[in-house]
């Protein structure tokens, strides 16, 4: 087998093709070797690890997702010497956590595409489809009515979960405008209102109610959300935003315990513009699936709070965009040219797939994108023989985003990329694309994906460390480097 380095193909003198020296690490399979890592049944590789031939299906369609909870839960586990189950690793949420470099549209959503040669598979490309949303200033944002639905079950006494919850709520309340209103529901075996709708101008009273929260008995999340949505419906006022914020470890053991059952009780309210933000806490006794699916089905988004700094990031500086919906029922469709592409695979979005024929069916639920957020889809793309040697000016990939604007009208925006516009090495690529490759290699390693046998620990650590040189001053990247050092051993 030939050996290549992450920053570029290794030259005879030990330097890489883009001038970056380094030891070899990635193993490039020969022409007869399969890149797919087989699952327990060798005839059926795991979902997301198989290339699709565009001659059979040229379209990849999925609902957009701005969640980040999978990454912060991984971070919490890694910093505490623990691990998370591979089923909780969602590549798109890892990538979504980090800043990108997409242009911000004036309204709604817009799409951009770039790509680079995959150094460990020279005939393959890493294609990045970026979708960004319009920003909104705090002054332009409508006043907000929030219903806080807080898990007060016995499991919240573990691992500092209730203390983390209170810290997050204090940050949230302190960041709200005085013209907003807050109500709060506490649920254990039963649910009860612990704070009637109260103006944020009475902040001391709201914060006092937060301090009174304490762990109690069993966990009836369905009752808590049902009461929370009833309260939110009663607070709805023309010209104001109404949101439900659930804070929990996701463990539901009384009443309905699955997201479908819980959301079926509140489906009408969830579709009336009362979006649900699910906030996970607690490294132990945690139900990732419930909280992630509640956010998806509740037309909202899912985060995980592992520190005061993360609470400030989500509810302090990031609050304005966290509450304003920039686009509803948003989905993307990416088309690959069969004449130039022999195979492609989407990294992540396994539970966000939409049938190709439903791309323009607005009766099919998409994802909600909130103002100031970006979401990214990464593809591994294999080119047909000869396509890489003579890059075409014709697009080999076309990406379209479709969403409903605030008047309910369907809007589509499209971007394309040709082979001639692909960066021939990581040194020529956008620093944020290099960042996303490191993140994707990391998640691949965590799930035992098809790149695991091609990627050396030393290469992954070295390329992660190189990011600090091209993205100097980004603390999230600095921490990513530290996490890679911990897990790439």
TrEMBL record:
Residues 145-323 form the VWFA domain. This is VWFA domain-containing protein. It comes from the Bacteria. InterPro entries: CLCR, Uncharacterised_YfbK_N, VWF_A, vWFA_dom_sf, YfbK_C. Gene3D superfamilies: von Willebrand factor, type A domain.
């Amino acid at each position: 087998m030939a050996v290549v380095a992450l920053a570029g193909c290794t030259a005879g003198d030990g330097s890489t093709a883009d001038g970056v020296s380094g030891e070899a690490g990635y193993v490039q399979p020969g022409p007869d070797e399969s890149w797919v890592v087989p699952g327990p049944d060798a005839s059926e590789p795991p979902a997301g690890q198989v290339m699709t031939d565009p001659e059979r299906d040229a379209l990849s369609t999925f609902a957009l997702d701005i969640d980040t909870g999978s990454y912060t839960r991984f971070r919490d586990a890694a910093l505490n010497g623990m691990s998370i189950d591979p089923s909780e690793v969602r590549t798109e949420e890892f990538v979504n956590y980090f800043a990108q470099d997409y242009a911000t549209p004036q309204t709604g959503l817009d799409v951009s595409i770039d790509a680079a040669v995959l150094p460990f598979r020279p005939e393959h490309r890493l294609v990045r489809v970026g979708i960004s949303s319009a920003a909104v200033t705090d002054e332009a944002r409508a006043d907000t009515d929030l219903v806080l639905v807080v898990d007060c079950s016995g499991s919240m006494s573990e691992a500092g979960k209730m203390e983390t919850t209170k810290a997050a709520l204090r940050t949230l309340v302190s960041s709200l405008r005085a013209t907003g209103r807050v109500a709060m529901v506490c649920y254990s075996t039963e649910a009860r209102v612990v704070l009637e709708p109260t103006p944020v101008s009475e902040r001391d009273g709201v914060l006092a109610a937060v301090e009174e929260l304490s762990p109690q008995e069993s966990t009836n999340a369905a009752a808590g959300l049902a009461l929370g949505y009833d309260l939110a419906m009663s607070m709805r006022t023309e010209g104001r935003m109404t949101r439900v914020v659930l804070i929990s470890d996701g463990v539901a053991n009384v009443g309905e315990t699955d997201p479908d059952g819980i959301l079926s009780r509140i489906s009408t309210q969830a579709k009336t513009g009362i979006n649900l933000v699910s906030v996970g806490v607690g490294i132990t006794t945690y139900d990732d699936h419930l909280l992630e699916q509640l956010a998806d089905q509740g037309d909202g988004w899912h985060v995980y709070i592992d520190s005061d700094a993360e609470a400030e990031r989500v509810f302090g500086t990031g609050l304005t965009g966290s509450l304003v919906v920039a686009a509803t029922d948003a989905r993307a469709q990416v088309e690959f040219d069969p004449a130039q592409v022999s195979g492609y695979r989407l990294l992540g979005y396994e539970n966000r797939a939409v049938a190709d024929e439903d791309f323009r069916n607005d009766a099919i639920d998409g994802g909600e994108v909130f103002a100031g957020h970006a979401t990214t889809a990464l593809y591994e793309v294999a080119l047909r023989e000869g396509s890489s040697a003579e890059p075409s000016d014709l697009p080999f990939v076309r990406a379209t985003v479709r969403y409903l604007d605030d008047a309910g009208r369907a809007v589509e925006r499209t971007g394309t990329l040709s082979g001639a516009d692909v960066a021939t090495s990581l040194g020529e690529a956008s620093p944020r694309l290099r960042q996303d490759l490191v993140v994707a290699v990391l998640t691949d390693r965590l799930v035992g994906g098809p790149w695991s046998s091609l990627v050396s620990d030393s290469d992954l650590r070295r390329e992660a460390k190189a990011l600090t040189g091209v993205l100097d001053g980004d603390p999230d990247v600095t921490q990513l480097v530290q996490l890679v050092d911990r897990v790439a051993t």
